[in-house]
């Protein structure tokens, strides 16, 4: 942490900062410049934060240097992590395809979407039973009935299930069905939900807030980690910008940046970022090429009747191309498409 | 709703749209242009939304025209509403000052802040017992102990209490102490929380999401309203932009825009938007001048030791100026500073 | 300037930074922390910038501290400046109303708009002869013919003229007619134009880039100042954000922030920021209340036939209210409406 | 174009719109809804734009439907274009690598950078002689001396030269040396410069404004095209968002979106978007995979002494990897790395 003094700061002002820091058990190094004096602080940054140094007389600015997250940081955990979801690895060396319908609507629709996904190379099934919707008048998901459908389709296909939870009170219920909990972009700073997910015993896929900086995303992951759960997969899904030609602006650079700052796997959602079917395949290629540990894609057997986000779901005709892409591209970045775990008896995947 | 056909759309494509709309009970008016054909839809917009018209062959775009919110819209409720909080009105004709500490820390600090606020003209006390913080290592608030302190200070000062709730599971508890529930910017799309607040029986102050459009803000209010609670006050608190000189960018235009679209009162938080003490008074003046129904301001007896957001709290020296501003400016926009409700004998709340 | 070393930086890395800085004539102060070492640099910051410290081995970050602008900074010129435009002051103590048509169309339209403006209290006439338009198919202004109309209307009304210049090659021509050059938002980083305006001998109104930070805005002003022209008025006109309910988001906080960082006057354009007539008066009130040194407003005698930005022009019916606002509000912030310079006999400008 | 009437619009209001449109030679189709009436306009959209329909009584909104650009649109020119730069093609089927130093500093540095670039597979040389810099105190480029160096290096290497022009007055000079003019992000709406480039007789690389929508980018290209020059290559170089971990946010989706809307080639600048050496290779891979027609990359023999943007320049060690990437990835998206034109004997340009 560095304290920058204002041009007119007096010796007394400088001494005020130094003694406050020293009283708090830290060390303060004063560098007197021609125009300004700066004071470097060494010690427990969290504690300095509570000193309100910015409020002291003569202080112009306080600049934080260390990363504010610890458990998810690569500083203390240099090797990149692999998170296992029902036996399926997500992390370095592999590229995992997660696919399924945006919303679970019926057993048939979910099973068909899962089979489409599996045929394309997916090893994890996504599908929403609890849907956070901007409008209270929009379809909000089937709730527990949807979770049961997902569990049935898992039995049928052998694909572990990733599904969203939108309220801390539902975490236990959702965790009793799901192999991985998803926390969506609108809940990226719902701290009660993050903490509950941290105590759920299940891996968590944490979508980036559409307005969240990469640092805030990692802080949200830290909330989960702090409750004892480091099985976290970060998911970049587009941020909100002035550009309206796409639903969101996929921040493709966030993948290498987050992988450099954190040891957690980072995947990409090309369906929700682009918001349009035509963009899903190009963005999937970009995500794999940039080095993502996986992609999560909406597929739907009949998008024209989908209750949620039909315009962005891939259909049967697109899946052959998807199947090619997810096999051809990963080797160029030192990865292979993740295979289904071989130890899946009873409901063995194709 | 208007469906815009692609340049190469065929008659069959156009007929496809028309029959789908008519089957759904709507009317479709076809306008054939030189370059494009457009189809105007008349009927139940919610129902059209579920038709996935955008997925039909030959459709280039679908443009929605009606506002997607109903209960909070001014279209069906032309007169602007007044919301009463423990007897204190917020709405047209008055300008209500809400003030208090960002976080409740001790009984003394809270009482002193309340008295500072009251002396400046505040009629409602703000103060946080549950604090949503970006870092899990930051002070998270006193919880129920903080609520008890707020209730005691209300007894002492007669000021009704506004306090934040961050989890649907806490709504009942917070509502048992508070006169008004606050929903913060990070929970602006926490739909479970919005619905719980809608069932709480208490007025709700709904902060705009830092990434939220005005339309999304009104949709969030609609979630509360849909559960039977129209006692909602909207609070503009700054949005996230590329500019880093301020903590957030106060969207001052949002006040007249939201007041034109919705009948709900709209207030401004100049403390959190600017993030710096020096900006609080100028932004308060701007908020009153633009026509806000109120302002909510952080005050603290000793900001240099504040556990939360000290740099933006007003101190005693600023309050004389604040007291002047909140009395002098409202008459120029046809308002008067809200007075404490007269039915408050001996500092006892209604 | 502060150099932050990476966690694994060696003594050799640290020494490398120190010797490079010392070779360049600066001083380097090393603070060794538990996790990180930071090095404070003292000396000529511009020179350090060319050292590419960020490229050195072991360097994690380089943080600049001093303001990068000098001539327009308040650090070296504490008192706020007054800029005179044809005798009319813009700066502290007064609130100057600049008004006129967005584009000069005909002599009649321009004269009528000027008279409307003057009746409302305006002392400077705005009007565009060169219009930068997003579309090459939109009306681009009358060019020199428009400048002649403006000069005639100045003769008739005594109002000095503010008009835009869009190309460095036109600066001399425009300066031969205008009392103040306007540089628009799309040219906020057209450095050739800024430099030419700096050599024009005329005051310059510099609009903020719609994507420009306050720092970049001041750097653009520095380009003008560096050519010997300190008669610069900064104009906040809204920035581009995700919000689409308004044409731009007026960054009202930018006024006090820019006034704190720079000694130059700061005015507000409520017409182009809101983009809608209904917002002009509320935003004008907000601008005056926040402490702007002036406002610049579109007026048009017949906005329904305006060739440019008709929807945001004030009409006759609005001007009575504008006249009231610009007289009633400034005294509350220690200002008075700027009067026409008294040395204006027979409608002849000073 | 669609005119949306306000809920309370009268028959007279509707008739007013209809007659105004018909007087202007257009047709108006009225669709009366339960809540609202909408009017579809057919005819010359440019002319409707000048009617100021938005200002008419009873009009709530006016929605434009056709693309406002014509010459660069794919609507009238379905096949994607190939632009040739000194014989080197940029467009579908190939992936062209453009590389070189950010700024031309010395003959040696430029030649070395060109040879590094060529060895990695580049067929076009980039290098700046005129540099637009945020600070007037930063290195502004060598001007014509730099152009001469570029021409010499072209003679030596056979690589056609792409270089920036920042002022309309310099276009003729720069065009006399360069094979392609570059217009930078800060000049994306410098219309005088765009028009001059349109008359230069040279191909133009048009960078997207860092705040520019895709539509504005295409409108800027239309300014060039309107002057008779359709040899335009669009370059996505990152947009400005709230995220500060990268210099800009590379909008990777803009590539397929712009390719769908326009027939012009679209390339990507991974150096300026990320702003950090470590991001250049991942973003280059993403750009090729998403389907870009080329990439433009900073290389420098000694970035630690570079006068401009050293932190993002690739160095010798990175180039082996770059060479692999630009050869291995294009075939996966149906392209091959562009070869130097065969009519280049002995390193002499055509």
Automatic annotation (TrEMBL), chains A, B, C, D:
Molecular function, one GO term: aldehyde-lyase activity
Domain DAHP synthetase I/KDSA: 88-327
E.C. numbers: 2.5.1.54
A biological-process GO annotation: aromatic amino acid family biosynthetic process
Source organism, top-level taxon: Bacteria
UniProt domain DAHP synthase ferredoxin-like: residue ranges: 1-66
Keyword Transferase: yes
Keywords noted in UniProt: Transferase
NCBIfam families hit by this protein: DAHP_synth_Bsub, PRK08673.1, PRK12595.1
Protein name, per record: Phospho-2-dehydro-3-deoxyheptonate aldolase
Taxonomy of the source species: Bacteria, Bacillati, Actinomycetota, Actinomycetes, Streptosporangiales
Gene: aroF_1
